[in-house]
Amino acid sequence: MGLLDFLKKIEPDKKKSPVLHTLFDAVYTFAYSPDTVTKDGVHVRDGMDLKRTMIHVVIAMQFCYLFGTYNIGHQHFVALGEHLGILEGFHLKLAYGLIKLLPIFIVSNVIGLGIEIYFAAKKGHSVEEGFLVSGALIPLIMPPDIPMWILIISVAFAVIIGKEAFGGTGMNIWNIALLARVFVFFAYPTTISGDEVWVSGFEKIAEGYSPEYGWAHNLFNSLFGWLDLSSFNASSTIVDGFTGATPLSLATNGGWEAVTQVYTESQMWWGAIPGSIGETSKPLIIIGALILLATGIASWRIMLSMLIGAIVMAMLLNAWGATPFMTVPWYYQFYMGSFFFAMAFMATDPVTASSTNAGKWIYGFLIGFIGMIVRVMNPAYPEGWMLAILFLNTFAPLIDHYVLEANMKKRLQSG
Amino acid sequence: MLQIALLIIGIVVFIAVLTSLADNLIQIEAKKSGIDTVNTNMSIWPSIGSMFKPVTPNFTSSTNYHKLRKGHNIKLTGEATGDVQSSTVSRYSVRPQNFRGNAPIPKMLVEVGDEVKSGQPLFYDKLSPEIKYVAPVSGEVIEIRRGAKRSIIDVIILADKVQTYMIAQTPDLSNVSKEDLVAYLQSTGAWSMLVQRPFGLVADPSITPRDIFISAFDTAPLAPDSRLILDGRNEDLQAGINVLSKLTNGKVYISGNKDLSKYLSSLENADVHYFDGPHPAGNVGIQIHHIKPIKGSDIVWTIGLADVLTLGNLATTGKYEPKRVVSVGGKVKNPKYVETLQGANIGELLSEQIEEDNLRIIAGDILSGKAVHMDDFLNASDDQITVIKEGNYNEPFGWLLPLKPRPSVSKTFPNFLFPSLSFDVDSNTHGEERAFVVTGQYEKMLPMDIYPQHLMKSIMTGDIERMEGLGINELLEEDIALAEFACTSKQPLQSILRDGLDMLKEQL
C-alpha cells in the first residue's frame, strides 16, 4: 500500500498541469486498476477491459520480436559471409539486432504516446490504450535501417492525422501502424524500396563494403572479449554475390526458380530471409495468430476469408501465367512476403475492420483478393497487403452499411 | 464408351425428373388435404436443417422448442437453498415509479393515517384515471415518501396482523364482455401488472394487443427457481391464463425451461414454448423474438409469472393477494427463499443477514436491478435481493494479472475451463469507460437478429429511423443488460437504450 499512497500523494492537479496529470494517470492506471464502482446500470462488470485486450495482442507479437531481433543480426552476418549457420554467433546476432531494434521501438513509442498524451490532456480525458498495439506493431513493419528522423515523422503523421484528427482510439478509419508505413512508402520511397534496405548496417550492398559499427557495438565487444566469445569485426567485408534481395523482389523478375536459387523453402518458411523486422518467420506469426484466436481477441472470420481470398486470386493468376511472378505456384506465394503478418495483426484490428460478422467475411476476402493482385501486378513494389488493407479500411463502413441495410429491410418488410 | 456414358446420364436424368415430379405431386396433395406444409416437411427428401437440429425433448414439438446458443450464465456464490420460508415483514410499499409512462405525481386517494384493506385503491394517474393502483396488504398508511420535485416514491403501509380484503365480484369468463373485463381489472388493481412492448409502459386499455407473452422462468444470476413459485398453484396459473386469453385476439404464449414441463404441458388457452440456453433465454423480450417478433406497429403485452398467479387468484376468489417468492442471496449470512408479498421492506427481509459493511444491496439481479438501502422496498416486479461487496479498491496490475477470480466472458481468463465455478463478485468496474473498440461482443450476448453496437451508435447520434430499423422496438433494458456486463469498453448500454426509447416515445 505504500506505493499506492505515494502515487495518490503526488498526483498533479488536473487544471493546473493537464499534460502532467494525463501522464500521471496513464502510469497510475497502468500500475493499478482504478477503484471506480458501477452506477446506473449493471452492478457487476466483466473482468475484461481494453488494456487487457491490447496487452494480449502485444504478447502474441513477442515471438516475432524475439525472432526479428535475431534475424536483423543474422542477415547482417550472412552479408559478411560469417556465422552462416542459423545458430552460429548467437550472441553477436542478438546483440546486433537489439542495438538496431531498441532505438526504433523506444522512439516510435515515445513519439506516439507523447502525442497521444498531449491530445488527451487538451481534451481532458485519460490516454486510451489504442497505442499499446500500434506502438508495438510499427517497429515490426519497418526496415531495420530506417533513419530515426523518418520514423519520427511517420509516427507523428499516423497518430496526428490518422488517429487524433478523427477523435482518438476507436474512431480512426485507417490502421495506424499501416499509415506510418505507407507514409514512409510514399514520402521517402527510396528508403523503402530497392534491395538494399532490408539488410542493415551497410552504406551500400556491394562487394567489399565494410559494416558500420558504433559505440554500442564496441561496448558489446568488450563484454564479449571478457567472456571469450567472438566479437564484431569492423574490417570484414560483404562477400561477392550477396545482393540482399528479398524473395519477393527475386520472384518479380524470375519467378519461383529465381527465388529457389538464392533461398531454400525452409529458410523462407522459418524466416531466415531479409525483410521487415517482424514479418519473416511464418510459424511464429501463426502461433501469435493462434493465441489471438484462442483468446477470442481476433476475428477468425477475417483471417479465414483473407486466406481464402488470397488463395483464390493466386490460383487465378497461376491460370493466367502472363508474367514470371504469376507462375509462382499459389501455395508458394505464402512463403514470401508479409501475408501472415498482415492477416494476423493488421487486418484483424477491430476498429478499422468491418464490425458486422457478415461484413467481416467480405472484408477479409477482398483484402486477400486485392492484396494478391497488388503484389503480383504492381510494377513499383512487390508487396500488396499494406495497400489492400488500407483500401479495404476505407470501404469497411460501406460493407457494414449494406449489411445493416439488409437487416433493416428484413425488419421493416412485414410491418 | 460414349454410348454407355450417354445411356447412364440419360437414366440418371430420367430418375431425377421422375422423383422431382413425384415430390411436387405429393406437396400438392398435402396442401389440398389441409396439412400445414410450412412447418412439416412433406417432400421425399429430408431437409438438411432438420438432420442437424438439436434433439427435441419428447414433451413438446420441434416448433415449440428453441435452443439458444448465445448468451452467458453468470454463476454467483450465495445461491439460495432450502424450502421457502414464510416471512415476518410488516411494512410494504407501492412505488409509483415502477409503472412507466405515468406522471411523477399520481393523484392520491388516501392520506397518511388512513386504514386500508388489501386491494383498496391508493392512487391513480391523472391521464388514465380508471387504472387504479391498489394496496398489497391491509393496514395503516404510515408514510407517503416523496423524492425530487415532490414526486411520490413510496406509499408505505404497515400491515395488520390479520389481513382483511376488499372482495371484488369474480367475473364469469364464459360470457363477460371484453370491456367489462377490462374495467374489472382496472378497478381491482390487476391492470398495473400488464406491461406493453415496445417501450415497457403500463398497458393501454384502449388497445387490443397482438399477443400476450409470459416468461415462466428467470435465468438471471441468483433468480428464484420457478418450480418454487408454481408449486401448488396450478389452478391459479390456469385461471390467470384464462383471463388473459380474453384480452387479446391473438394467443397467450407461455415459455418455460425443461424443468417446468410438468407445470406447463397441460395448460389450456395458451401456447407453450420451451427454451433451452444460457441467460438471457429467460427474458420475455428474447422469447418474443423467437416465437413471433414485434414488427412494424405491433403491440404486445407481457406479464410476470407471479402476477399471473395473483391474477388467477383474484379471478377465482375475488381477493387481491400479490404473493412473491423472493430469493435472498449473495453476500448474506444465510441465503434463502422467503414467501412474502409485493413491495416488501428490504431491511426486514435482510434482518440479521448482513454482517459486513461496504456492501451494495440490489433489489433485483446484478444485471438490471436497482441499488437500494435498508429502508427501501422491493419494486413491483422484483423477486430477488442480491447483496454484493462494493469494489472501491485498487488492484496492482489488476488488468494483467488478476489475483481474485472474477466472472468474464473472455477466454483470456481460465473461467471457461471450469463451467461450474461460482464467483464472489464486487462492483468494481475493472477498467475505465472507453470508446467502442471491440466488435462482435454484444452479438454473442444477445440471441436476437439485432446488431446492438450499431443500434447504440444510432441512439447516440439520435437517428430515429435507423433506431427503428435496427430493432429498438424489440428491446428493453433487461435484454441488453448482459451485453453491458460483457462490454470491454464499459459503456452504459442500458442507459443509452433508455434514452433511445424515450426519444422514440416522444415522436409518437
Explain this structure to me?
- The complex is a heterodimer of chains A (415) and B (508).
- Chain A is an all-alpha fold and 415 residues long.
- Chain A has a domain at 17-33 and 47-244.
- Helices cover 63% and strands 0% of the residues of chain A.
- Chain A has 17 helices and 1 strand.
- Chain A has helices at residues 2-9, 18-31, 50-80, 90-123, 130-140, 148-163, 176-187, 189-192, 215-227, 247-262, 265-270, 282-294, 300-320, 330-333, 339-346, 357-377, 385-413, and one strand at 32-33.
- In chain A, α4 packs parallel to α6 and α7 (176-187) crosses α17 (385-413).
- Chain A starts with a helix and ends with a helix.
- Chain B has 508 residues and is an alpha/beta fold.
- Among the domains of chain B are: 26-55, no CATH class; 84-317, no CATH class; 431-508, no CATH class.
- Chain B is built from 14 helices and 21 strands.
- Chain B has helices at residues 2-32, 48-52, 178-188, 226-230, 234-245, 261-264, 284-291, 305-317, 346-349, 441-445, 452-460, 464-469, 477-486, 493-507; strands spanning 65-67, 84-86, 91-94, 107-108, 115-116, 121-125, 128-134, 139-146, 152-159, 195-197, 201-202, 212-215, 252-256, 271-276, 300-303, 323-330, 336-341, 359-363, 370-372, 384-389, 395-396.
- A 7-stranded mixed beta sheet of chain B has the order 1-14-13-12-15-10-11. Chain B has a 6-stranded mixed beta sheet with strand order 2-17-16-20-18-19, with helices on one face.
- In chain B, β10 and β11 form a beta hairpin.
- Chains A and B meet through β1, α3 and α17 of A and β21, α12, α13 and α14 of B.
- β1 of chain A pairs antiparallel with β21 (395-396) of chain B.
